[in-house]
Amino acid sequence: KTQRPQTIAWIIDQYAHVKKGDVIVRFDGVPFQLEVDAAEYEISKLQFSKNKKQREMDLSIEDFNNEEEVVNFEYLMAKKFNIDDPLLYTKIEMIEASDNEEFLEAKTQHLQKMESHYQDKSLSEVNLIDSQSEFQKSKIDVNRENLESLEIKAPHDGIVVLKKSWDDTIPQAGKSVFPGMKLASLPDLSS
């Protein structure tokens, strides 16, 4: 099934008699297993990154919420103890108090916008990590499929005739072969 060269780990002898289901060629599965192991390691790293990002996001949102509470409390105090009696306070003190209320309102809105942007950005990063994990999982699936199809079995009884390649040699253990190469034929002797 793979579309890349494979190395023959074992091949039956030339002109050997085989029964239906006997193994004719077995390919080396080490490269596929190494890729499975590497992809599993990548998934572990990505899961660690996702957990770390989730913790950072939770802590940052908590910080935003705490700061918003402080600003809201300051705003309520500024409203409660509003300086608007011209007999008790100077014009400058009243202007400063009014400016302070406006500042606290603007600060609350700014914090809410920053929290929203931060959440959007963090969720995008988490989604990216998820898609990278899915990619690694698909690599694992493909390589496990390849590991399950490392053997070529005889479709019927017969005598194996190994085919010579372009360099006039027959297939042997340790030799690399490419997809689509004919390694052997198995004439049907039943007819």
Key phrases:
13% strand; 8 strands; four-stranded antiparallel beta sheet; alpha+beta; OB fold (Dihydrolipoamide Acetyltransferase, E2P); Helix Hairpins; single chain; two-stranded antiparallel ribbon; 191 residues
Question: How would you describe this structure to a colleague?
Answer:
There is one protein chain. The chain is of the alpha+beta class. It has two domains: 1-28 and 151-191, Beta Barrel (OB fold (Dihydrolipoamide Acetyltransferase, E2P)); 30-149, Helix Hairpins, CATH 1.10.287. Helix content is 57%, strand content 13%. The protein contains two helices and eight strands, in the order βββααβββββ. It has helices at residues 30-80, 91-148, and strands at residues 6-11, 17-18, 23-27, 151-153, 158-159, 161-162, 176-177, 184-185. Strands 4-3-1-7 form a four-stranded antiparallel β-sheet, with no helix packed on it. A two-stranded antiparallel ribbon has the order 2-5. Helix 1 runs antiparallel to helix 2 (91-148). The model has no long low-confidence stretch (mean pLDDT 90).
